[in-house]
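Hi all, long-time lurker, first post. I run a small reading group and we've been trying to get comfortable going from sequence to structure in the token notation. Rather than ask abstract questions, I figured I'd post a concrete chain and ask someone more experienced to write out its structure so we can walk through it together at our next meeting. Sequence below, copied exactly:
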Amino acid sequence: MAGVSPSRLAALTRLRCSIFATAYNPTSQRTGAKYLRARLRGPSMMNYYPEVLKISDINKQFPELELLDEDEQQRAVDLLALKSRGKGAPKKAKNKEESRRLSRKK
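-- Answer (accepted) --
Happy to help. Here is the structure in token form:
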């Protein structure tokens, strides 16, 4: 029994790939086809984690409820304390003359 020639085996492989709709890859290089065929994970992950409700969003939808956001109030108190010690954010420059960065470069 004689062996089958490599060209006939390659033709058979090419025909098999066309019939079964697979990628013809005679050199066995990595193509990433496994990851491209896999379904996307993002939508499942987004559905897994519930949506976070914020009091500010509820206040925007229903202003008549007048809910108090304790975290926001605490943040405002902390900012006032920082500003009183001189540790707050710097004032924004209204024009180029007030900008510290531009005056330093001169």
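A couple of things your group might point at:
Residues 6-20 form the longest helix (15 residues).
The chain is about 50% helix and 0% strand.
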